[in-house]
Specification:
- The longest helix has 22 residues, at about 1-25.
- A hairpin with a 6-residue loop joins β20 and β21 (about 540).
- About 40% of the residues are buried.
- It is built from 16 helices and 23 strands.
- The chain has helices at about 1-25, 35-45, 45-55, 75-90, 90-95, 105-110, 155-160, 220-225, 260-270, 285-295, 305-320, 340-360, 400-415, 460-480, 500-510, 545-550, and strands at about 60-65, 115, 125-130, 150, 165, 170-175, 185-190, 190-195, 200, 210-220, 230-240, 255, 275-280, 300-305, 325-330, 385, 425, 435-440, 480-490, 530-535, 540, 555, 565.
- It starts with a helix and ends with a strand.
- Among the domains are: about 150-240, Archaeosine Trna-guanine Transglycosylase, Chain: A, domain 4; about 260-335 and about 425-565, Vaccinia Virus protein VP39 (Rossmann fold, 3-Layer(aba) Sandwich), CATH 3.40.50.150.
- α14 (about 460-480) crosses α15 (about 500-510).
- A six-stranded mixed sheet has the order 5-11-10-7-4-6. Strands 15-14-13-18-19 form a five-stranded parallel sheet, with helices on both faces.
- By secondary structure, it is an alpha+beta fold.
- Helix content is about 30%, strand content about 20%.
- It comes from Oryza glumipatula.
- GO terms for molecular function: RNA binding; RNA methyltransferase activity.
- Belongs to the class I-like SAM-binding methyltransferase superfamily. RsmB/NOP family.
Length: about 575
């Protein structure tokens, strides 16, 4: 009797263990709108798009660090990182990764399997710091108790996969009876199809199967998590992906930046003394990269229409001791100053001839890579931002009660979230045509190449076309602002050919004086060739010829480069 009961229980226990093993894993499936999925399958081929879609749901397994060569050298930073690992563990041995002791100075660093120099020509100021994953974790529970869980939002989970902790605003739900110091499994609730045809977030038990991103220790009780507005909710101890974290590490000497973004600044090839425009510059990574390549000599105009983002650019420039950057609050669609129309038309003929002539030696480049998106709901007035000082400009200036209250709040609360003391906004009329040697347009885009991405169902074919229309308007501004014979680099961080190859096709067809130039460094693969037509024949999209496709760079997240998806 006892023996029979034991035999019958064994298969049940085994089945339960197998179910748990399948459940407590990280195996996400990226959801797309059916029409968008068909569009991308037509562009890439169904098998390749499936690989891209799978790669997008996982983070890259390394961090790319750009060295500020005006303050240090690549070798010096490499040694400093190694010393930090040896002395302090650098976030637990780079999030738990151990770097073995090696002797022999430079040779030891060169051969290290975690921190090493970028192997691509022309990127000698770049270091790679290797992470690891995905790891199979064991989610342990107490005897006679189910595993305690904290369920987080998709955005929170994407940050955790990149190395962040779980912060209170990202927590959606929590098991009952969770106390401070408890070990919890962290899972993510992702949007699911709703009955009305849209999407809804449901933290249902079954929907989280295969969506467990790690384990951690709660920093407070369940009641505390839902009572306080901010702070760390869970300190992660085990992660599906162990990636390096560089908070407060070598500030001013290094900048964490995706490889395609580094390439975009290099391809622009800025020279000391030139005047450069970065049209959508926040948070300032490419802007500072350009300034360093120019040896901080010349002038870089950096634009963004968000006041706080402009302050971020100024803060980063100050942190890196860069003086050639001027940041303005300005809608890039209004970046061309309005002049006498007849005068500008009169200059158009000579402009075209000059570009064709100079293109033989320095061909204008139209490229693609990383994107910084801009919030369309923010103020788009044409204004500039400058740092305020404490000097009195007018002793008789009237100060309203509202200004007094604002100043009192600032004194009481301290600096804002950007750690800046504020800024003064002034009117600006934009910039004159033909007034820049080179223009970088890192265009606002659908951002469908950023990793990790756990949901993509919000984009439709219509919304993708709207992104492309907006980018064309911005590119039109860039063409007016660059001088004859100058260079335009166009970049995005999306896999959408409509925002990449189709824009290049638009530029070459509309502006006959433009031509694609060769790129250095050339790290990515070729662009997409051909065209796309909807089955209803209501929409046709033209891409590139075979020759043109070799003059752009497309970064495939499923390739061995293991970057975000972008286009240069």
């Amino acid at each position: 009797m006892d023996s029979s009961a034991s035999a019958s229980a064994s298969p049940t226990a085994a089945a339960a263990a197998a179910a748990d093993a399948d459940r407590y894993t990280y195996s996400p499936r990226l959801r797309w709108q059916p029409e968008v999925e068909e569009y991308f399958a037509a562009a890439y081929g169904r098998d390749r798009f499936a690989r891209i879609s799978e790669a997008l749901a996982h983070p890259s397994c390394y961090s790319c660090i750009r060295v500020n060569t005006l303050k240090s050298s690549t070798d010096a930073v490499m040694h400093k990182l190694m010393n930090l690992v040896d002395q302090n563990g650098l976030c637990g041995g780079i999030n738990g990764l151990e770097i073995g002791q090696q002797n022999g100075g430079e040779q030891a660093h060169e051969g290290n399997s975690v921190v090493h120099k970028c192997p691509y020509s022309g990127l000698d100021n770049v270091l790679f710091v290797q992470g690891s994953g995905p790891h199979a974790l064991h989610y342990d529970s107490q005897p006679d108790q189910s595993i305690k869980e904290v369920i987080v939002s998709r955005k929170c989970a994407e940050s955790v996969l990149r190395g962040a902790q779980v912060y209170i605003p990202g927590v959606l739900a929590c098991s009952s009876h969770v106390e401070k110091g408890d070990k919890v499994a962290v899972s993510v609730a992702i949007e699911q199809p709703a009955e009305d045809g849209g999407w809804t977030v449901d933290a249902h038990h079954e929907e989280r199967k295969g969506l467990y991103i790690g384990q951690g220790i709660t920093a407070m009780s369940r009641s505390g998590i839902f009572r306080v507005p901010h702070g760390v909710a869970v300190e992660m101890t085990e992660r599906v992906y162990k990636l390096p974290s560089f908070n407060d590490v070598l500030e001013g000497e290094i900048f964490l930046q995706n490889l395609p973004s580094v390439v975009a600044a290099r391809v622009l090839d800025p020279q000391p003394g030139e005047r450069i425009l970065d049209m959508c510059a926040a948070p300032g990574g490419k802007t500072t990269a350009i300034a360093i390549l120019m040896k901080d000599q010349g002038e870089i105009i950096a634009l963004d229409r968000s006041h706080n983002k402009v302050m971020d650019i100024l803060k980063l420039a100050a942190e890196m001791d860069l003086n050639c950057i001027k940041a303005y609050k300005l809608d890039a669609l209004k970046s061309v100053r309005k002049t006498n129309e007849a005068k500008y038309i009169g200059e158009a003929g000579s402009r075209t001839d000059a570009i064709v002539t100079l293109a033989e030696d320095s061909e204008p480049c139209i490229n693609k890579v990383d994107a910084g998106t801009t919030n369309a709901s923010e103020d788009s007035s044409t204004t500039s931002v400058v740092q305020t000082d404490n000097k009195k400009t007018d002793d008789k200036r009237y100060v309203s009660k509202a200004d007094l209250r604002k100043n009192l709040r600032r004194m009481r609360n301290g600096p804002g979230r950007n750690n800046c003391s504020g800024g003064r906004v002034e009117n600006s009329k934009g910039f004159l045509p033909n007034s820049f040697d080179r223009v970088l347009l890192d265009a606002p885009c659908s951002a469908l190449g950023l990793r990790p991405r756990l949901f993509a169902g919000e984009e439709t074919l219509e919304s993708l076309r709207n992104h492309a229309t907006y980018q064309r308007r911005m590119f039109d501004q860039a063409v007016k602002l660059v001088r004859p014979g100058g260079v335009i680099v166009y970049s995005t961080c999306t896999i959408n050919p409509g925002e990449n190859e189709a824009l290049v096709r638009y530029a070459l067809d509309k502006y006959k004086f433009l031509s694609l130039g060769s790129q250095h460094p050339k790290v990515g693969g070729p662009g997409i060739v051909g065209s796309f037509e909807l089955s209803t024949k209501k929409y046709t999209e033209e891409w590139l010829t075979k020759h043109e496709s070799q003059l752009v760079q497309r970064f495939d997240p499923s390739s061995t480069l293991d970057t975000i998806a972008s286009h240069v």
